[in-house]
């Protein structure tokens, strides 16, 4: 047996030499071309030094020095970032204490957060993270609305978390967003009802994503409230506020960009669609003038 | 006793292949529906969310389930037939089968209930339910049992037959298994250390750059994992079916060695537009990618030469007369021709994709979708069909009912795939993005693409008809009558190998070379995320599973 194994090893085997030599050649040629030669020459700009070319090849950019151009003043839309710490703080909220904290809210937002007035949003069932963020935005003045700024300033961070968890747990309000729903026909750009088309397919030619991707039904994004069952007037007013730049606490400015491009008829129709009770047939259209 | 062991090996292969084709048919139906959905034509269920769910299912089924089960089943069949003895480690093989099946069912169910609409590439920061990732991990991890078994079967055969060359088919399927182990390492590490911790809520930040870069390790090599069973059929089954001999055994071995070495350290050519990889490494992997063309060109040459030998042996004369003398009624011979045409067309498109500069023209457009449908959905799957038509009668002992029907099925698939992909190439050059559910065909920029998209949707329906025909043919021959005793035979080379150098009879050298190339091509691009963390944007991810703040 050993003798036969000897046989195969004695068969002339040039492949280790060929393999390693080819590999070395490929490594050297590609490294020289990729790091030393090709990336030195720029279409619009001076030829880089070898050192800069190597750095560029590695992805370490040298053109990050600050320029002398004037920078616009930095304005952040919110103080909230969705870090573990923030989420843990919200999760630690105490609904029982929240029930006590939110006694003051009932005057406008209704019993257990179910608003009876077109001016005020329903808070029952709203995602706790959303309530918490809005309270903080009111507290810091990132969002302004009448009494809310003063009320939020009176609340500690703990109180905010408690209130958020309390409202999230209240039944009969907004539906919980779970990110899934059964597929249904008529939820594409072929839909003839413009409100439904906007909500489920968006308006690509204007760069408007579908509302439902973040606000449901069927979509969910941390920090975006569910809208089904919300007060129609409230939704419409907020869209208007975003469009006019009166409200600026959307993190990436996405709501201001979207709302600016909606006609007032579209705002009305979208608000009416969402306001219809969950499960009820929604027959809304954009009224003709 | 031996009889029963052989039967068990055959049954093992057949179960794998049935799962592969069982998943294949519904996945084709989803694809056909997706094409209607994104066309100006009316679609049965026009819901944009459902489209992405469907794309995720179609991709997960085709890219992971069909291919993995097919490769495993084919691998067991090749092991048993080429070595002429039952598969060793059959119990482990069945365990692997069950694990892969559980993983597939888990992933499919989670996608179906809308918890994992992340497309089959599941690029972060898109995030799915952890159960989807666990399903993918079980499927890929279970197939590692197959990898080990292929290597084990080859090694013990070499031990039992010292000095003998490993049969080409066995050598090639072992190369496939080793390639899959290298390829899968990327996605396994991504799942374990980037995606699953995030999906379970252990972390709130995700390193998108690291996740994507790790996935590219898998992304290109996986395509060659899909491709290699087709290449094995080119080399070992096609010349036999044509009644000829393999032109060169050494060319075959070199092809599979080069496919192994050159298809892994090249994945960054899928992310040429990603900002967090340096231009040098993008060029470097683009450069390496061109070497993948070598084994393919070598294969086209060898197979044409082998078929010419067969054609001339059958009495063909003149420069091209041998072509007409080939037994075109054999599905395998027809499939090789159709497959090579699609491989050629798709391959030339691939040169555009992998060129660092030209890639910008087609990146993320339907051109890319067209490219990989031509290569995988065309060239590779056509060979899967042909392999099935060869293997089914051998395993079940019942001959194919009608070779004519099989030829119809192959021609329909060929026609359908060209009708699908040629318009896609054109719309891609016009700038139509891939992976978009709905287009506004009233828009003046999009409007000219409408007719092309309609044509491709018709191609999709033709493919669906062909897929139904395939299943009908396989079911008919499964439950047909008649006894057939013809073992699967592999083509003999013109000069059968007697003594071959150790390096062409094993993979130690080539694994060492691949390791060096991987460290060279991926060491820094992956390592940078561990050391230069500050330079890499870590995107925050939002998802119900991690917010933990809701009621």
CATH homologous superfamily designation of the domain at 174-289 in chain A: Cytochrome c-like domain
Main pleated sheet of chain A: none
CATH architecture of the domain at 174-289 in chain A: Orthogonal Bundle
The CATH architecture of chain B comes to Up-down Bundle
The strand count of chain A comes to 0
The first-level CATH class of chain B is given as: Mainly Alpha
**Percent helix among the residues of chain B?**
over 70%
Number of helical segments with 4 or more residues of chain A: 14
Question: What report would you give on this structure?
Answer:
- Chain A is mainly α and 289 residues long.
- Helix content of chain A is 47%, strand content 0%.
- Chain A has 14 helices and no strands.
- In chain A, helix 7 (128-140) runs antiparallel to helix 9 (157-169), helix 10 (194-201) packs across helix 14 (264-275) and helix 12 (232-244) packs antiparallel against helix 14 (264-275).
- Chain A is elongated, with a radius of gyration of 29 Å.
- By secondary structure, chain B is an all-alpha fold.
- Chain B has a single domain (2-540), classed as Cytochrome c oxidase-like, subunit I domain (Cytochrome C Oxidase, Chain A).
- Chain B has 17 helices and two strands.
- Chain B has a two-stranded antiparallel sheet.
- The N and C termini of chain B lie far apart (61 Å).
- Residues 534-551 of chain B have low confidence and may be disordered.
- The interface between A and B is large, with 74 and 63 residues.
